[in-house]
Amino acid sequence: MKDENDKIIERITIPYAVTDFTDLREHSFYYVDKTDYISKLEAYKAPVFLRPRRFGKSLLVSTLACYYDRTKAHRFEELFGDTWIGSHPTNEHNRYMIIHYDFSEMMMSDNIEGLAQKFNDLNCSPVEIMVEQNRDLFGKFQFLNRGNASKMLEEVLCFARSQGFPKIYILIDEYDSFTNQLLTISNTPFYGEVTTNDSFLLTFFKVIKAGIGEGSIRTCFCTGVLPITMNDLTSGYNIAEILTLEPNFLNMLGFTHKETETYLRYVLDSYSINQECFDEIWQLVVNNYDGYRFRPNGDRLFNATILTYFFKKFAANAGSIPDELIDENILTDINWICQLILSLDNAKAMLNALVINDELPYNVSDLSKRLDKQNVFDMRFYPVVLFYWGVITLKDKYCMNFPNTTMRSIYMKHYSE
User: Fold this and answer.
1) Higher model confidence: residue 326 or residue 112?
2) Over the stretch 241-280, which tens digit does the pLDDT of each residue have?
3) Strand order in the sheet with 399-401
4) How many CB atoms lie within 10 A of CB 186?
């Protein structure tokens, strides 16, 4: 027999770690509606959107996949009926064939040949899945080139174009996950080899660029953390438009104060017997999960995933504040970048200001400058790198600071070691 705690957990509809939009909607999880941004994204062919880890990027990618997938047309009302886009659908909904890549699953290797093999092992299946899901169009089509992700993508694009099929919508989640790891490995040329010449990664993006150019690809939407890899791909993918700091997209990920207030009231109504604790909980979540700003005059945003982590713990704890306020997963994500920056020869002295003054001066023009492997470890750009990773955020036009006590405590842990 299940105890009372099991029953409470069964009733929880707070979507921590739920990154599949279909799953979220089928199980009636709480959803902060961001679908009004879908129509805005349709103005772009190769948009790139960067946010710190655990900020809700994967759910956005899944939402776009569901919205544009022609094989889910019969489920449009079920999945989107009560959302903003459900009431304001664009002409492009459910019109495309979807290829969904996730580079965060990429395994590492100790040589460039091994990396190429790992890349192909991971990225051949998304193309095969698309063909199977659209077998009503592809009929008896079979790949001539298996085992090479770029050639398989090129082959399917050519076939789809020759047959007059609907366009393909490509989604790449965490496009820079493995290249960021390569970037921080000292004394190896791997990062440079992967992003230049005729590398497997550059070849892959060249195929996508060509597909967009000749019209078989409608859009390639990428998410990630840093702009470095995209900048270093140079002419191989010089069509990318990074929307990260664009005013119209600042609140596409993360929760505004209004969205969070509504979310918190839902949590209290559903899981707490004490409806008078709103002010106490509100102050707690503001202190620990709020404060991210992506333009000097932008709204302060909550980190969606770690806020949802707290809400789920709160619900599972029968409406009581849990002892642990920090998601262990975010510790793993942030630890290595803190260790990296603090280990650099000329970093410690400069970053003392972040501890002593609780802020770090920066040049606002550096946010829009090209950040690549040539300057990422230039001391001038350390604040920008920490900003993209979510360790610090924009206080104003002149200084950055910690967004909240959670990030401050993580940083201080490494600073004092």
Assistant:
1) 112
2) 999 999 999 999 999 999 999 999 999 999 987 778 999 9
3) 360-361, 399-401, 393-394
4) 6
Burial label, 277 (beta-carbon count in 10 A; 0-12, 13-18, 19+): middle
Structure confidence at residue 272 (pLDDT): 82
Give the whole-angstrom CA distance, residue 386 versus residue 400.
10
With a cut of 90, say whether residue 63 has pLDDT above it.
Answer: yes
CA distances from 303 to 12, 14, 125, 288, 401 (A): 20, 15, 32, 10, 16
One-letter amino acid for residue 381 of the chain: F
Q: CA 402, CA 54: separation in Å to the nearest integer?
A: 17
Residue whose entry in the numeric block shows the structure tokens 């609907």: 166
